[in-house]
Amino acid sequence: MKNHKSLTRRLFLTGIGGAALALPFLEGLAPRRLRAAGPQRPRYAVFVRQANGVVQADGQEPERFWPHELGAVTKELLTTVDADRAVSELADYADKLLLVRGTRFPFPGNGCGHSGGGNQCLTAAKVSDVPSGNKSLAMGESVDNRIARELNHPDNTEPLTLYAGRMAGYINEVLSYRGAKDLRAAERNPWNAYTKMVGIQNLPAELAAKITARRMSVNDLVREQMQALMARPDLSKDDQSRLQLHFDAIRDLEVALTCELPPQAELDELEAQQNYNGADDLMQTIVKMQMSLIALAFACDYTRAATLQIGDGNDSTEYLIDGIKYPRFHQISHRIYSDGSEGDPIPDALGKHHQIDREHGKMFKHLLDRLSMYQTDAGPLLDDCAAIWTNDLGAGVSHTYKNIPWVVAGSCGGFLKTGQYIDAGDVPHSRLHNTILSAVGLTNQEGGYVDDFGDPSLAPGVIDAMIAG
């Protein structure tokens, strides 16, 4: 049920060539009547998907992902007792974390565990009979789609759907669905996503070329309007600071996207050009750029939901970590030099998988840093979000659909109970999605918590332990 009372934060400056630059929330520009009434704050959800499972207790596999004990999550614990676990990479955000194990995908795959897991991850829907195997599709909409169509501004009812890495063709996108078998294409090129978001796709060729070559910023196109806005007496110093931070972030992102940021080490790291084709060596760089775009999109209320898929359906990225190129991640997750069940063992494959898990934790931390960088009138933007790091398998060797990892950061306006690690008790993950949908402000027809997400055969309900008392 759409909440029509929430205050839209999507404001624009329009400048040269029709460029429309989205702005962050400015308290001074909020309608006085709504400001006096204390409007409900917009809330946001982003889902970051890792492939190939994580190193957690499963059969003969040891536990290397979750904290040692259920209960409180603190920085002290994550940097001492739990320092050997992948989630320790998020120690700086310990009090904002909600770690949820004990959920499962409720339906079997159809000939390919990776495809079936990807299809269910954000839909909690059955997997299609036709097509099948690696071509199988979800039979329902995804949680990001539901949030966007019910809460987004009417001029943009789509979630932001991003991708990082190669598209090898066996399984490409798996996450975002408009409905049954209606898989949404994801944008792999961060420059394309950026230009669409800030409204410069249709600029005159001369202006577009200057921006592409970094001889001009989008900020330059709206500079006159920006200066007039900054001079308005109804803007507070906090509003002016938010605007300056916003413009600086846009400039920084443009610099990264066009690869001309000295010194040379940063040049090498940011060697991601507009014709990016999924090169493995750029994976972490592109992931961080896409995450920066997600934070910018939320700060401007461009959309209320986003997804970022890292790697294709069975991510075969050769990750570059600490200067060492790893074997293909999918093979590491199998522990052998093979995409099947037979092959020579990969030395310390479990350790390599754990390091890749940690690398994903570091990348996720970048998203949390960016969401925290933006300040609203009530605090860090992260506090208005549910930023979620998940997987489309529980573990790599077994391809299990049990104990799917959900690392949630942000309380979504105080709705979620953070600073804890819980076990949901082997429940369908539809209950987690019901909880997140409720956290962003949606309700069921009776005005209560959302309880109907996913396949109709699933028992309704939320995960009560996730909800703040």
Sum this structure up briefly.
The chain has helices at residues 32-37, 75-79, 113-121, 143-151, 190-198, 205-212, 218-221, 223-230, 237-258, 264-269, 283-299, 329-334, 349-373, 430-439, and strands at 11-14, 20-23, 44-50, 71-72, 97-104, 160-164, 177-179, 182-183, 305-310, 320-321, 324-325, 375-376, 379-380, 385-391, 406-409, 420-428.
The biggest beta sheet, please? Answer: 8 strands, mixed
Radius of gyration: 22 Å
User: What is the average of the pLDDT values?
Assistant: 85
Number of domains: 2
Kindly name the structural category.
alpha/beta
- The rounded distance between the terminal residues' Cα atoms is 23 Å
Question: How would you portray this structure in words?
Answer:
The protein is α/β, with parallel strands linked by helices and 469 residues long. It folds into two domains: 1-40 and 191-275, no CATH class; 44-188 and 298-466, Alkaline Phosphatase, subunit A. It is built from 14 helices and 16 strands. It has helices spanning 32-37, 75-79, 113-121, 143-151, 190-198, 205-212, 218-221, 223-230, 237-258, 264-269, 283-299, 329-334, 349-373, 430-439; strands at residues 11-14, 20-23, 44-50, 71-72, 97-104, 160-164, 177-179, 182-183, 305-310, 320-321, 324-325, 375-376, 379-380, 385-391, 406-409, 420-428. Strands 4-16-5-15-14-3-9-6 form an eight-stranded mixed β-sheet, sandwiched between helices. A two-stranded antiparallel ribbon has the order 1-2. α5 packs parallel to α11 and α9 (237-258) packs antiparallel against α11 (283-299). The longest helix has 25 residues, at 349-373.
